[in-house]
Structure to design on (318 residues):
């Protein structure tokens, strides 16, 4: 039986309250990501406080990078521009926007710096939303292990040569740094759960990967080539925006079908699962039907704590 907290397809649907909570969480995270740029702006204002004209900004090396950003240039674009071209960009900023601002030229510079950095925050957040979903899943797995008294080792994502770390009483922020985790299930079988691995059989990156192995046979991720050791592969969509929910499910569903087909061609029936933050009515009905028919093995709404705990308990038991 799949998740006991999913008795009908409507149980999978993300409620308005859960969507609101998700958006508020993302808004808070966006403020955290953007805060360094605000602090940069404060520092800039203090440094140029005594300037009486924007012309003074043109040749100052101590604020050059800030001025280039205010001129609309990203860090990446600077690799393709000469020093002279960069100076021209600052000069145009001064002539077209800072001088017309009159005595407010310092604030105008700051506004334009933050406008450019706003794009950077947007790009970071698009990646961060998926990471937040993974972090919540990992934290729930760790919590289930702690409650059940399951010992484990975990692999940090800091580098390819990172060593496995023993379970510690202080597991604060482990979810931000974990690449894989290994334990022994109740049947005495070795299990390793890893995230975002390229699976050769599928020829695609897979979000959630469960293998029958320990930390040694995981072998730095080379276990991905061992078809017989692969137990379950799943898709995780951490976004909370209802407008993009259906498209995310279509992408995930296509990936899951590709996984099942690829492993079937190798003579192995693979278990699959889906965890999503934004699940709308129509896709919930489709997910539930797949669960009932045994096409997909398990699923959970990321915003539903009971479903997520049950899903993680299942991962720890299979």
């Amino acid at each position: 039986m799949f998740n006991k907290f999913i008795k009908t397809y409507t149980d999978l649907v993300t409620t308005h309250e859960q969507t609101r909570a998700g958006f508020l969480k993302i808004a808070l995270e966006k403020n955290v990501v953007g805060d360094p740029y605000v602090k940069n702006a404060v520092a800039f204002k203090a440094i140029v406080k005594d300037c009486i004209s924007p012309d003074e900004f043109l040749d100052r090396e101590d604020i050059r990078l800030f001025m280039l950003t205010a001129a609309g240039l990203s860090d990446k674009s600077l690799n393709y521009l000469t020093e002279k071209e960069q100076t021209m960009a600052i000069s145009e900023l001064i002539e077209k926007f800072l001088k017309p601002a009159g005595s407010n030229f310092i604030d105008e510079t700051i506004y334009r710096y933050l406008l450019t950095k706003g794009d950077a925050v947007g790009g970071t957040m698009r990646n961060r939303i998926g990471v937040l979903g993974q972090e919540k899943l990992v934290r729930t797995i760790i919590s289930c292990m702690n409650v059940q008294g399951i010992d484990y080792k975990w692999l940090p994502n800091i580098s390819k040569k990172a060593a496995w770390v023993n379970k510690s009483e202080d597991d604060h922020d482990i979810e931000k740094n974990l690449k894989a985790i290994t334990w022994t299930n109740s049947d005495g079988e070795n299990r390793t759960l890893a995230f975002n691995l390229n699976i050769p059989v599928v020829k695609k990156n897979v979000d959630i990967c469960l293998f029958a192995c320990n930390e040694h046979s995981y072998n730095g991720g080379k276990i991905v080539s061992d078809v017989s050791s692969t137990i379950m592969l799943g898709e995780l969509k951490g976004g909370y925006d209802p407008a993009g929910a259906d498209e995310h499910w279509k992408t995930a569903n296509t990936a899951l079908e590709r996984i099942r087909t690829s492993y079937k061609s190798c003579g192995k029936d693979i278990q699959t699962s889906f965890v999503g933050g934004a699940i709308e009515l129509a896709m919930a009905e489709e997910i539930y039907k797949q669960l009932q028919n045994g096409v997909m093995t398990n699923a959970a709404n990321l915003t539903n704590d009971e479903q997520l705990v049950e899903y993680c308990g299942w991962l720890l038991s299979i």
